[in-house]
Structure to design on (749 residues):
């Protein structure tokens, strides 16, 4: 066991942090609220290779593993950066996994810094028309339609939908004017690739939520250290301090869980055993379910510490409260993750025993 | 980063676990468990001695102190297997705790006399810190020790001296100078429980475990029973409390989930399938998620301790999350069983043979002993978040 990031990981994370400290300040996040996208920041991130860090080098990326990307996602969440960091990495990795049919598209995406995203729901399933994360800014949208995995390219970006998390959401479809469609995979392979992309999205979103929650608590702590009421600094009151301590604990757990999910993905990629028919898949759902709830809780606690100021738009905490709730909803009701976990761990007698005892 | 316990030596660890399971299974039988339940004492001497013979109590202690000098990661695995077994293994932790404290703060003579006996399974000692008038504020201890020639005379009372009924010594926190700040007037003694003037009285608890109140009435011990400096007891206490290092991995909560799953499967369906009830499924899945987080926090604390790092905050986080989530888990699992949930062990239809009902009652103690949740939150707020000491 070694829970320290490697020097290489620390170096990449620090570089991303420096960029966001300078270019994803609360003022810049607010300025990008209308579209949820900061084109200048995106260009800088592309120049650093950030959106394609997780794409193999052969596809024009940096070839990092999901754990490396998860560490970056934590920082992305902390700064609620208005760029589609998660979508770009997940879509790029999906194109790479699709092999030959996605090759030319992947080279264009990484070479030109094009925004690509993945529709999380099956677009053909009845009643499954869903806003697509980064759909309002993506030039390439990968979607699962029944048993076909398609890459839709070149259409005008969709009409942005105003939303709670100020994300660049839009409805998209393959029928858009001027769109070129590539079939990336069909049948079981299509579903497997899409399923894997969803698990990566779950894991990275979990990591981002953890970073978001950590920052929300930091905002609350800062206020609690300075504000006086009833003759004392309010951080000295247990009613204020203890919820912050509970959330700090939750978030350390959330971080370990999201990181362990990402590490499980990398292990499977390196040919490790796919225990229990996919330890990664189960951990990805666990991480999303846990991080979504605990980040939301942390944001609430962070809002509560400043009292009335907390719900004014002037204060930054509201930026976090809205995103903590909105991010996981891009997929679905996060409580459905529990049903998925139950299916994976409880349906076959003996699976849970193996999960615990190895 | 590597999340695998034992890293590259994981396969050796697996063999060690297999050995542990084989032995512990013999002490998790209904007979042994019934014996422990009847007395409330979580220590079975046959098991304790067998663990000692196999070198398991002092597995990670240096050889010159009677240990085996093995990799501390084995003790994480051991702690997990003990917790998952349901065997009465409590002697292990008391023997280790006192041995570690003496190793850190005892005289050479005390180390030589007691550590091999503790690791060899010959004796255990209980902890005499808490008093009727002070629990979390342990430095407020009022039990008096007064020097009389080369002897000390002790008068007072201690609460929660668990396992005193089977221990040969009590590690006793006393006040030797009432005239100075409370942390500066404390001294510790290792007192034989057979000493004249000691009375051990049983206290029954909600979870069925026995603890005690112990009375000290003019108890005389030689100065050689003193551990650490006179009035230097707080330093010894810090070492002792650090040895209570909260850390772990898979534990009671996992056992609880497995037991419930099995019981629910049997009671609903002959083919062993879990019912298609989303309420039940969500409750069970939430337990699985909490358990995962709890064990990760436990591994992290143990990993840091194993590297000789100060992991006070990380230990507190584990203790807080692990114990609070045990209350949540045992509560929702009982709910999941409906009216059968309340039945005691031995009753027809009792959920998981009554284990969940027992653990629900037991769970409350976990959020209190070894530093209550409120104390842990205070530690985290102060030392992680940098908030002022809170009251």
């Amino acid at each position: 066991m070694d829970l320290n990031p490697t020097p290489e990981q620390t170096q990449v994370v620090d570089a991303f942090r420096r960029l966001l400290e300078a270019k994803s300040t609360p003022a810049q996040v607010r300025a990008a609220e209308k579209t949820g996208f900061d084109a200048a920041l995106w260009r800088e991130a592309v120049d650093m290779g950030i959106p394609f860090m997780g794409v193999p080098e052969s596809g024009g990326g940096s070839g990092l593993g999901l754990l490396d990307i998860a560490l970056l996602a934590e920082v992305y969440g902390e700064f609620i950066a208005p760029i589609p960091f998660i979508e770009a990495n997940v879509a790029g990795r999906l194109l790479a996994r699709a092999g030959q049919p996605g090759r030319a598209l992947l080279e264009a995406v990484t070479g030109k810094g094009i925004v690509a995203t993945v529709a999380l729901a099956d677009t053909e399933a009845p009643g499954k028309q869903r806003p697509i994360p980064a759909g309002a800014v993506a030039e390439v949208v990968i979607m699962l339609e029944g048993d076909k995995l398609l890459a839709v390219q070149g259409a005008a970006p969709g009409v942005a939908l105003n939303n709670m998390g100020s994300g660049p959401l839009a409805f998209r479809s393959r029928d858009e004017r001027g769109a070129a469609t590539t079939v990336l995979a069909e049948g079981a392979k299509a579903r497997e690739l899409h399923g894997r992309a969803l698990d990566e999205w779950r894991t990275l979103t979990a990591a981002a939520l953890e970073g978001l929650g950590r920052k929300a608590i930091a905002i609350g702590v800062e206020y609690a250290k300075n504000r006086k009421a009833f003759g004392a600094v309010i951080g000295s009151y247990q009613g204020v301090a203890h919820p912050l301590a509970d959330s700090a604990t939750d978030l350390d757990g959330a971080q370990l869980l999201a990181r362990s999910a990402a590490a499980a993905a990398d292990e499977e990629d390196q040919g490790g055993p796919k225990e229990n028919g996919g330890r990664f898949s189960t951990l990805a759902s666990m991480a999303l379910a846990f991080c979504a709830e605990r980040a939301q809780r942390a944001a609430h606690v962070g809002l509560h510490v400043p009292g009335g100021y907390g719900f004014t738009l002037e204060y930054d905490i509201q930026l976090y409260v809205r995103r903590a709730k909105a991010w996981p909803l891009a997929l679905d009701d996060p409580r459905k993750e529990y049903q998925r976990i139950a299916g994976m761990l409880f349906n076959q007698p003996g699976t849970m025993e193996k999960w615990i005892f190895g | 980063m590597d999340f695998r316990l034992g890293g590259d030596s994981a396969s050796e660890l697996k063999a060690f676990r297999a050995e542990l399971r084989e032995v512990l299974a013999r002490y998790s039988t209904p007979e042994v468990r019934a014996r422990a339940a009847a007395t409330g004492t979580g220590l079975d001497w046959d098991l304790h001695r067998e663990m000692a013979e196999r070198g398991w109590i002092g597995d990670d202690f240096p050889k010159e102190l009677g240990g085996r000098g093995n990799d501390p990661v084995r003790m994480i695995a051991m702690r997990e297997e003990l917790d998952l077994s349901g065997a009465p293994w409590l002697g292990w932790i008391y023997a280790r705790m006192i041995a570690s404290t003496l190793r850190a703060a005892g005289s050479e003579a005390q180390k030589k006399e007691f550590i091999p006996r503790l690791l060899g399974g010959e004796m255990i000692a209980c902890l005499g810190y808490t008093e009727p008038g002070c629990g979390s504020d342990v430095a407020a201890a009022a039990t008096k020790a007064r020097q009389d020639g080369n002897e000390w005379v002790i008068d007072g009372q201690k609460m929660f001296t668990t396992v005193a009924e089977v221990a040969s010594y009590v590690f006793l926190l006393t006040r030797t100078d009432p005239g100075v700040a409370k942390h500066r007037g404390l001294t510790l003694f290792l007192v034989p429980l057979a000493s004249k003037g000691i009375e051990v009285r049983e206290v029954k608890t909600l979870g069925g475990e026995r603890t005690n109140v112990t009375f000290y009435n003019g108890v005389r011990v030689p100065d050689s029973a003193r551990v650490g400096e006179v009035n230097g007891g707080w330093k010894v206490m810090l070492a002792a409390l650090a040895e209570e290092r909260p850390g772990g991995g898979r534990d009671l909560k996992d056992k609880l989930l497995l037991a419930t799953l099995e019981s629910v499967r049997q009671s609903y369906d002959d083919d062993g399938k879990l019912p298609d009830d989303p309420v039940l499924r969500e409750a069970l899945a939430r337990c699985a998620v909490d358990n995962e987080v709890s064990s990760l926090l436990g591994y992290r604390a143990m990993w840091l301790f194993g590297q000789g790092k100060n992991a006070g905050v990380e230990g507190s986080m584990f203790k807080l999350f692990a114990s609070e989530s045990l209350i949540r888990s045992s509560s929702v699992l009982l709910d999941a069983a409906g009216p059968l949930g309340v039945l005691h062990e031995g009753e027809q239809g009792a959920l998981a043979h009554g284990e969940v009902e027992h653990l629900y009652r037991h769970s409350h103690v976990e959020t209190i002993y070894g530093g209550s949740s409120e104390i842990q939150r205070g530690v985290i707020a102060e030392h992680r978040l940098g908030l002022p000491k809170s009251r």
